Amino acid sequence: MLSAFPSRRRRRPIRRVHSSSPSCNPDRPASRALGPNKATYNDDILDTWVGIGSQIDGLGHLGVEHVYYNGNKLADFADPNGLKKLGIEKVPPIVTRGVLLDMAAYYNTDIVKEGTAFNVKEIDEVAKKQGVEIRQGDVVIFHTGWLSLIGKDDKRYSAGEPGLGVEGARYLTSKGVVAIGADTWALEVLPFESKNVFEVHQILLAMNGTYILENMDTAALAKDKGYEFLFVLGQPRWTGGVQAMINPIAIR
């Protein structure tokens, strides 16, 4: 199960859940129960940054000098009320073959060291070792053990990470995968391999339309050696959204 995992990125996210029930909102007077059956209720209004926990990056998230996927220029589709194009609501439900690449096992460690890049050599060697083939239409997810730092060493977790390298990003997109993810907060290796900033994001999102999955909870799959599975995701359809908090499921 690639369950949602509340987490921090570079700072603690602000999360406010407001109840709209008069009975528990100190700013509103209590009201009478509804109807002869005296029905009362609680409800929510969520005020939060959506780039938290297990998440999907939509195609409007990151571009190249204000040009995004399919040549869309930021000035033509950005709006304070949400993206006019490339919104997260355009992402279809994803039901496809999933492949887990256990990088922690490859490096014989519980947590892969920050700054470790996964490129063609590493990807091919892990796939061969696990006896799996990466195919067109797959969702590929890396297990690094990085997520286990949350609550134990938050500073290290936020400062860097192991992850997908530029060569590896081009390699996987050439295979036609649908999405690439990891149990890290940005998927790509940090520190970066060069002076370029979030180049892997650019290759995946802006240049190829490949979705990014971050903070995937991969520990159980890795423990069970669940290297192939059915990946199922129906993300929130927030009109004009850039990202979404998700709870994907791996079925074996």
Tag the structure with descriptive keywords.
12 strands; 2 domains; Glucose Oxidase, domain 1; alpha/beta
Concise description?
The chain is of the alpha/beta class and 252 residues long. The protein folds into two domains: 34 residues, no CATH class; 197 residues, 3-Layer(bba) Sandwich (Glucose Oxidase, domain 1), CATH 3.50.30.50.
Kindly state the percentage of residues in helix. Answer: 10-25%
CATH class of the largest domain: Alpha Beta
Shape: globular
User: Sheet with the most strands?
Assistant: 8 strands, mixed
Which regions have little confidence, pLDDT < 50, spanning 5+ residues?
Answer: 3-19
Our estimate of the beta-strand percent is 15-25%
The arrangement of helices and strands along the chain is: EEEHEHEHEHEHEHEHEEE
**From the alpha-carbon coordinates, what is the Rg to the nearest angstrom?**
20 Å
Identify the CATH architecture of the largest domain: 3-Layer(bba) Sandwich
Q: What is the β-strand count?
A: 12
CATH-defined superfamily of the largest domain: Putative cyclase
Structural class of the secondary structure composition? Answer: alpha/beta
Gap between N and C termini, in Å? Answer: 9 Å
Return the CATH topology of the largest domain: Glucose Oxidase, domain 1
Number of domains: 2
Mean pLDDT: 90
List the helices and strands and how they pair.
Blueprint: E1 15-19, E2 44-48, E3 55-57, H1 74-77, E4 94-102, H2 103-106, E5 117-118, H3 120-130, E6 139-143, H4 154-159, E7 163-164, H5 166-174, E8 179-182, H6 199-208, E9 211-214, H7 219-224, E10 228-233, E11 243-245, E12 249-251
Parallel strand pairs: 4-6, 5-7, 6-8, 8-9
Antiparallel strand pairs: 1-2, 3-9, 3-11, 4-10, 10-12
